[in-house]
């Protein structure tokens, strides 16, 4: 029985995402999580934390571990997604983030996996995220219009948030222009 006590963290979803490629040993997963030109650019997970997260994912029935014994090496556990794990990670990949503070880590990691495994879905995800960003910006825009700019700290903060969201939207629009290159790199058209 899968406990439904808490939502998974972004790094736990990243572990599931790496297992989409097939079974993997813990040390290999950690290397993928910390790769300098990959997910490691936006996320850092200590190896001890990663093993605790793998244990949680197994407990929830999202992954299975299979022990491999070898006379020449220490015992290693190879982790693989269950059917429920595949469904969980695919649902997560196709859901835009709901809060601006989740954009940098959570959305970027989704972009990494979508562009790696399902590049044809990238434009759809970007468009959904742009819609949500417009809602965030609209909400802040109303606050900004209600009071003169720089009159108080609340206005300064709202303008800062508004500018961050605008920057996110500019990046998302730029990312859409990069889709043909991403598809070409992945062998799709």
Explain the overall architecture.
By secondary structure, the protein is mainly alpha-helical. The chain has two domains: 1-93, Winged helix-like DNA-binding domain superfamily/Winged helix DNA-binding domain (Arc Repressor Mutant, subunit A); 119-189. It is built from seven helices and three strands; from the N terminus they run αβααββαααα. The protein has helices at 10-19, 26-33, 47-59, 83-93, 103-117, 122-146, 153-185, and strands at 24-25, 63-70, 73-81. A three-stranded antiparallel sheet has the order 1-3-2. The longest helix is centred in the last third of the chain and has 33 residues, at 153-185. It is elongated. 25% of the residues are buried.
What's the quick description here?
The chain has 189 residues and is mainly alpha-helical.
Number of strands: 3
CATH class (first level) name of the largest domain: Mainly Alpha
* Rg: 20 Å
CATH architecture of the largest domain: Orthogonal Bundle
At CATH level 3, the topology of the largest domain is Arc Repressor Mutant, subunit A
How do the strands and helices of this protein lay out in sequence?
Elements: H1 10-19, E1 24-25, H2 26-33, H3 47-59, E2 63-70, E3 73-81, H4 83-93, H5 103-117, H6 122-146, H7 153-185
Antiparallel strand pairs: 1-3, 2-3
Helix pairs in contact: 1-3, 1-5, 6-7
